[in-house]
Amino acid sequence: MQVDGKVAVITGAGGGIGAGLARALVAGGAKVVLTDIDKDAVAGVAASLPSDTVAFASGDAGSDDHIEEVVTLAESTFGPVDYYFANAGIGGGPGLQATDEQWDAALNVNILAHVRAARRLVPGWVERGGGYFVSTASAAGLLTQLGSATYSVTKHAAVGFAEWLSATYGTRGVKVSCLCPMGVDTNLLRPKEQAPAGSDEALMQRAVTSAGRVLTTDEVATAVLDAIADERFLILPHAEVLDMYRHKGSDYDRWLRGMQRYQNTLMDN
């Protein structure tokens, strides 16, 4: 599928990867509907794009009502949705200290938002004979995320759901891709407030920034568009993640020992 002339919805589009995707899609000829829980942020991204290419709304990406609102906005403004980028994501909470509320929030945004969007769109795509679901997961969904159980577990779930969606609907016209980058220069990686020294939050940040090059959001967006043009399932802007994933699968215990050593090294610094 090519994006020229297509209609795309992007969640988490108030900044980061979502904003990068918006710029890349519009440059490729698509019409985009942006949504983010931060109304001012998503309005700012929308204002930076040609007015005839963009519409936006604000709300919870995991809410059925908001998903319906956004799909209806896309259909009434540009036409049926061709691409849905389930991109919104949050970190949740650190380690075992994460509260039930933080777990609920991470589950809602990082995985249930994908499930609810697919529930709304996939039956129509099957009837139309085409549609594309792009899930933003993380390398943490293939490997793990030191410092954050909420992030690691929900990103694993996002990968698992994308796999299931492709296996179940891939022969019925529904294409699926799953984005799994390591470090990307976003507010999630570099929050405004410095994490306390020695905290799980600080460990999480060091684990990501020391694992490989931190990419720009535009670099990631380019990798996404290249992948969906080829209809590739796994999108790996950091190519080395594939080798890491293979090492994990070839000897799980050895990989876990290596992660334990890596964590100790980070804690010692």
Which CATH C-level class is it? Alpha Beta
Name of the CATH architecture: 3-Layer(aba) Sandwich
Strand order within the widest beta sheet: 3-2-1-4-5-6-7
By secondary-structure content and strand pairing, the structural class works out as alpha/beta
SSE order, one letter for each helix or strand: EHEHEHEHEHEHHEHH
Helix content: 40-55%
Overall outline: globular
Q: How many helical elements?
A: 9
Instruction: Name the beta content range.
Output: 5-15%
The count of domains is 1
Q: Which superfamily, in CATH terms, is the homologous superfamily?
A: NAD(P)-binding Rossmann-like Domain
Q: Any idea of the CATH topology?
A: Rossmann fold
Keywords: Oxidoreductase
Pfam families: adh_short
GO molecular function, one term: oxidoreductase activity
Protein name: Putative oxidoreductase
List the helices and strands and how they pair.
Blueprint lengths: L6 E5 L4 H12 L3 E6 L2 H9 L6 E5 L5 H14 L5 E4 L13 H29 L2 E6 L12 H21 L4 E6 L20 H10 L7 H14 L3 E2 L4 H11 L1 H17 L1
Parallel strand pairs: 1-2, 1-4, 2-3, 4-5, 5-6, 6-7
Helix pairs in contact: 1-7, 4-5, 8-9
